[in-house]
Each structure stands twice: as C-alpha cells, then as structure tokens.
Design brief:
homohexamer; 159 residues; alpha+beta; elongated
C-alpha cells in the first residue's frame, strides 16, 4: 500500500473515505504574494485609480474560489464552509501584494486546500488586473501557515 | 482615467471591451513549481505508488481549470480554447515538481490567465495529494514565460 | 466597526463566521413576478403551445438556481438544502406570472438568499422564453415573505 | 406550431437553432433597482463602512453572473462576451440603489439575458449584504432598456 | 507516437490542438434508453401524475448538461453551441424511455460528446425521478447515430 | 397525489423535503460499461500509449462528476460526499471497459445518483478519448448494484 493517502492499494487516485472521521471545528490559514515592479504598486496605491477596486475585486475572487475548491481539486471533499476571509496588503518591501486567507469549517476534513485556493485565486486576479502594465509579475510563497482542529492537531508554520 | 485597463474612468472594475479587437491566433506559456522535502519527491517517484497517478491527476486538474478561468477570475473574458497542455516534471534540484502549461486560442484576447490558472491548479492538486506526508511544501515561481499573437506582439520571458 | 455584518472592522467584505451558530431547521419563502402584455399571457395559456413547457422549464430553472446560490452571491455560505419548490401561476390581473419559492435547510444560516435566487432565476427564464413576442416585460416585487428558524426568530411579511 | 420560439412544434422546450444567423456586434442594456429603508442607504453611504465594499462586491457579482447566464437559464445559448459593466448608484429618491448593466458580444444571438442576469445578481448581492439590517427590501424594475444589433434592429425602451 | 489523439508522444493526456482546423457547421445525433418495469412506465404515462413533468424535467436537464460538457469531460474543447434538442419518448416495447439528442455548432470540432452528454444526463434524470418506485432500471444503448461536418465527413450509424 | 415522490400533488416537479430524515451513513455502488472494437481495447492496453493515461483520466473525471451531481440532476439534493472511488478495468470478453463507482456519505438521502453520475461520466470520458479510432462504441449497463443505509434498508442487485 502506498503511504500516499490519495492513492488506493493499486496506486489508483481516489477521494479518501472520511466517513469515520468526526466533524470538528477546523481553521486553516494560508499566505502567498504577488511581486511586481514598484511602479505597478504605485499605480494601484497612488494613482488616480482608487486602490479599493483592484484589491477588493481580488479579495472577492479569493472568497468565491474557496467555495469552488472541490470543483477544482479532483480529490478534495466538498465542505460547508463557515467562514472565509481574504486580506490583501500592498507591501513596498516586496514590492508587491501580500495575500492571506483564513477559512473555517465544522467538518470531517481540514480546510487547507480552501485557504490555498483562495490565496492562489486572489493572486491570479491581481495578476489579471495589472498585467497590461507589468510583464514581470510573479506569484510565490503560497503555503499553509497554520491549522487547527482534526486528528493531526494544531500546527503553525512560521507565519 | 486610470492607466489600469480593468478600471473605468471612475475607478470601477469592469470587463474591458474587446469587441473592436481582431480574433488572432494566440499562445501563452506559463510556469511554476511546488517545492517539497526530498522524501516527498521520493515517495512519488520511487515508492510503491506509481508516480503516474499523482502527476497525471494534477495535469488533468490543470487542463480542466484552464477551461474554468473566466468563472474564477472576475474580469476575464470567456474564450473558446483550442489547446491546453500541462506538463509536470519531478526535479531533484528543487526538490519538487516543475509545472508548465501551454494554452492556445483564436480570439480577441490573450490566454495568459488560462495558462497561469492551469499551472496554479496543477500545483494545488499536487499539494492536496501530498499534504498528508509533507507540511513544508510551497508553491512559487508562477509566471508567464512567453506569449505570441495580439497587438502587443510576441514576447518571451527568461523561461 | 460597521453595523453591516458582511464587512469586517476595516470595511472589507468577508464571509461572516457562522461556526458558532447552531444548526437548526430553517424555512424561507420568497415571491416575485414577471409582468407582461395580456397577449403574451394568452400565448402561454390559451395558445397551441401547452403552458406546461414554459412554466415547468422556469420552475426547474428556479430549483436548480437555488442550489447555485453560493456560487453566485459572493458572501453566501454553501448550504445543503433539504427542500426547494418553485410555483409559477399565470395571473390575469397583473397581467403576468406570480412566482413563489420555498426553501428548507437544517443549518447554521438562513435560506432567504436561496429562495430569492430561485424566484429571480425563474423570472429570468420566463423572460427568456417570452422575449421574442414581448418587449415590455418587467421583473419586480422580489422579496422575502416569511422566514422561520434561527436566532432572529420567525418572521412573516405581508405575503 | 407555437409562436413561442423556444417551443418546438410539439410544444417541447428546446434551444433554438441559431446556426443560420450571422454573427454581428450586439449590445444590450438592462436596469433594475433594490429599494430599502432610508436608514439602510445611510448605513452604506454615510456610516463608518466605506460604501465601496458593498457596492463593488455587488458590481463584481453582477459581472461574474453575466458569464454564467447560459448555466442558469436553460435555453440560453453560450456566448463569448466581449464586454460587461455593472454600475450601482445609491439613490435617495427611491430610497435604494439603481443598477445598470451593459453587455456586448459579437455573435448570432443577443445579450439581453446576460444584461438582465447581471442586474438581477447585483441586486441579490446587495440584498444579501444588507438583509441583517433591513427586512423591507425589494428588488424591482428589472427590464431591458436598449438593444442594438441583430435582425430585429435597434431598440430602446424609456430608460 | 500514440494513435490515440488525446495522448501526446509521451502518453500524457492533453487537449488536442484544433487551432489549425476550420470552423464549419457540424451536427451530431445521439441516442440511448432507460429501461424500467412496465408498471413504472404506466405510473408516468397513465397515472395521476402528468407525464409532462417527469419527461420535460429530464429533457431540460439534458439540454443544460450539453452546455456543461467541457466542464465534465476533461479533454473536451469548450464550444458555442448553436442548437440543442432532447426528445424523450415512452416506449412500451422496451419497456422504458427512448432518448434522442441533436446538437449543432459552427466550430473547429464536432459535437458528439455534447449529444452523448445530453442523452446520458436525461437518462440519469429519469432514473432519479423514478428510483423510488423501481429498483430494476438500467441505462443503455448510449451511442452516436449520426454526424455531419468536419474533416471526417458525414456519417450515420444504424439509427 | 402522485406515487412519484418528485412530483407534488399537482404534478409539479420539486425537490422533495428531506428535512425530517435522519442523517445516516450511506453507501451506493453503481456499474456500467463501454463496449468497443477489440482493436480499440488493444490500442489502450498493448499499444505505445500507456493505458494509465486513458483510464486514469476517465477515473478522475468520474470522481469529479460525482461532486457535480446536484448541479446536473435538477431534483437531486446537494450532499457532502465522504468518499468517491471509480475503477475502470479493460475486459476482453466485452470487449471494452467495465466501470464501477462507490460513493459514501453521512446524510439524509442516498448517493445512488452520485454513483451513477460517476459511472456515466467515466464512460463518456473513455468515449471521448477513443472516438477518433472507433465509431462503434456504446455505453450500457449503467445501474445501481448495491445500496446500504437509509429507511429502505440495504439492498443488492446481482452485481
């Protein structure tokens, strides 16, 4: 048998059985970033265009994508999410945008994939809105930074 | 007026008008990577589990996500894609997986977002299938590496 | 802090946390109407075309849309609906069609949005099927008429 | 045969054949409104919560819904939209919010349903974000106000 | 290289490149059937329940599924369909229901998969509505019966 | 009143009320098959193309479709699935491919439709990948073979 839980004993991909797992409160937080030219950050922050529209569009896209996670990731279980928030902060040091998502559920599996999907889609949306003025952008640092609930217990990466 | 094309003259987000743009053949290529522990890469490559199942599931997820791009990215135009391919290669030097997507269309807008969405979703799918054995994974380096067709002409980043 | 629950303390849109709310039986009923020319109503009711096809198509569309509510409304929580019914009645007094939807769930949040989305989509479907013969149609009166379950208690508008 | 184009000669619902229709530039504009208590409008406009978040979330939801029209309305043809914009304006005279959507395509059918779906979903999203503070809201006046392109020629309702 | 067009020269699944193929008018017709007990057929045809609701719901489901084909079948190209019709006829000889779908497009690839998906989903919907009274139902005979347009020319199976 | 549970007392289609039903562990298994020419089976099994790519793509498509069941089948309740597996085996005796799906949930309704939708979509995906080399394929034998949990008790067809 494989040590990879998403493969059965013949190496076939399947959605793992969680019917014996208890529904508990679970939280996951993920982070990521879009790096861009300083001038791009300035266009969003200091230009005539209010930063709100770019950032709030990407935040909304991230929230909506969290709800589509099981549609996108083949072996993810569909879950009734109880909270999703996505926060995007311009950051001169990158330069770029720091993205953070927090997702909560009460269910038999964790919500790391929902948090990662929210961060990833928020970054893609920023990229889409800024690509006409910047060809050098890159999405990176997408990772889980903390997780609570479930059998494996609480866990926090260096956030 | 904003220099950001996705905002109108009041800074409101909108889907830009491409009705005056000619439908031309367009190609975009994007890349990204999932870094993980060497042991994780070994589990996929050398273990009892055939690497095929993990990698092919993620490639399929990337292809399907490319077709959902306009559903996920608020201001993306829906497009009839004429080709999508996603290639995932294990890489000992990372260590991790190098992901590449190529998307083609004949239409009035480019397909960078479709290629980026394919790469991003393939990385998320790898993450999902490997997260039970590795908490240190990170998705990074998601960027457009080349683009042909359209008014702005051909363009290639350092691939 | 805003008194608007869908905004956090910085005015940022988010999906509110319902993880502390108890799952209770909830029902919501919504109504709305499509007004049209009398001749349009006659074409549906008295013409050769059986009224069944127009009305039943719109009822089915309303039921299916209720299940898509969390996909459409950015900050709605995904919910496992336990009942959806949509009823469309031709009405000579409008003249037009009166639409009613009832939705039930056992969950931590109410189902008003699901009922409203069902009514709204049923009206849009009627509009689509009749627009070739009537340019004067209008959708109006979409509102919640009653709601039971949840912390805020039972409530009924003038139905 | 029915005079209703969406029914075949046996009264059966079907998606009408547009394969013989020429692809032409088409524009449709729709309007609608959400009426609410004056205090609700004040909470959005004058309160601590920036109006941007409520209004921009609803505008984005409307744009995204326009792209989902063929998924929601059973007999609508899928179309490659070339532009979507949604504009929401607070209006003290209603009191409430006036919503307008404009959609463009180059294709064999019109985009009235896409414009109406955008308006309808934007209204539903406003409703969702404000329902905690106002039980009296109502969505109404959803209609097509102008249409250009296609065999039936240009047409404008009293906007 | 594989003779299977959906695999690249390394046996990897991909969406084949159709960017060099001409957009032509294409039609595909598919058939299938749901067999059931005679008593089930009677319940739909002769009972108090009007047959319309069962059959028209399944026809609508088939039409809507045709539009979702590229979402469901991983390597299918998204297409702008120009016509979809689904016809369900009760058949005492089976006993059961005979299902037929016709799909048209003007595009670079055929629409067999759309017609097959429509038939398949219409059969599944009949199954869903009748499963409470019949455990012996079976879906079978799903196949393409004719196809016109495209490089491979016209073709008709024994319908 | 109709004996068909999906119709109300006026013969109108509706999603039946399951709010009074207890959430219990439920399992459903469905089977089906794609028959093809022997040469087609050989191309998948013995040719240069590794069989893995065709079969694993269809298995993944089946798993993903199970999660979309309530989107496709109008009166199906949305459910949080706890397990989905799809197994495809080449079979020289057919000749063709035998497809089996098992779905589990803890909920108020059964998962037969999810298992049937998984089998059906896996067959459609095989058809799509093989249609370029075989015009004689047919999907058949799609049925529920066993079911446990729920009021109607355990049940097994001849598998």
């Amino acid at each position: 048998m494989s040590e990879l839980t998403h493969l059965d004993d013949q190496g076939r991909a399947h959605m793992v059985d969680v019917s014996g797992k208890e529904a508990t409160a679970r939280v996951a937080t993920a982070r990521g970033r879009l790096t861009c030219a300083s001038a791009t950050l300035d266009a969003v922050r200091k230009g005539k265009a209010p930063k709100g529209a770019v950032i709030s569009t990407a935040e909304i896209a991230g929230i909506m994508a969290a709800k589509r996670t099981a549609d996108l990731i083949p072996l993810c279980h569909p879950l009734a999410l109880s909270k999703v928030s996505v926060t995007i902060a311009p950051d001169d040091d990158l330069p770029g945008f720091a993205v953070k998502a927090e997702v909560r559920t009460t269910g038999p599996t964790g919500v790391e994939m929902e948090a990662l999907t929210a961060v990833s889609t928020a970054c893609l949306t920023l990229f889409d809105m800024l690509k006409a003025i910047d060809r050098t952008m890159e999405i990176s640092g997408i990772r889980v930074v903390s997780k609570t609930g479930g059998k494996s217990g609480d866990w926090g990466a260096v956030a």
